[in-house]
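Readers of this paper often ask what the protein records in our data store actually look like. Such a record has a labelled line for the sequence and another for the backbone structure tokens. The tokens are whole numbers drawn from a learned vocabulary of local backbone shapes. We quote a single record here, exactly as it is kept in our systems:
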Amino acid sequence: MANPHGSWLWYELMTPGPQASRAFYEGVVGWTIDADSMMPGDTEYRIVHAADGDIAGMLTLSDAMQQGGATPGWLGYVGVDDVDASATTIAAAGGAIHVPPTDIPGTGRFAMVSDPQGVVFYVMRGSSPEDSNAYARTGMGHVSWNELQTSDAAAGYAFYQQAFGWEKAGGMPMPWGEYSFLRGKDAGDAMDAAWGAMMPREKADQPTGWTFYFRVPDIGAAHAKVRELGGTPLSDPMEVPGGERVFHAADPHGAVFGLVAPQ
């Protein structure tokens, strides 16, 4: 994958119930998710398809994984030019390496890491000659926004700037701190190039982490569908700057995500 260093390449749902998750997200977001695992053996991994491309994977959490501390949730993959060099930079900047640089035959090379505040994500260099479009700002069914809540916004920004060259693209005040828009290095006009944001968490007992917003055609219908299919809306739909409407939800296994739609 030739996406620029520091761009979002892929997303991954970790779930203990793949068929229940498959039914939920197909009904809420409109995806098509493989019924069968693409991998042989005990590791189950299914591909999530939007109408115009593959956008994510679904990893089944085995009993052993859960006993080891793995919990349901969404993780993102940041594309890098060199996985080994990025892992070294991340460690030097105060992050941690949870899975060292590892090859996935036919797919690429990856590492599982975390930032200094403990937020887990992946870095990856894909072997496909085609660019990833898993993140597409206005693509229906794609990830439309990437949002970090962190326990230390200043330290978090310094880390990601060092690791990936991310830049601030303006911001807006919130009662608990600035909502800072993010873009890749030298990405052009600040606001048009923003692909996400970071902010301090609202309360000290709130979890930190990345939340990924999936684009749907109708926010009200999606809100009702989340509840109908066993998920939990965590907020009512609300309008955000630019006229779009969003809300947060948890799937039936507790994995948190966002949904976004045009006004």
Remarks:
- The radius of gyration is 18 Å.
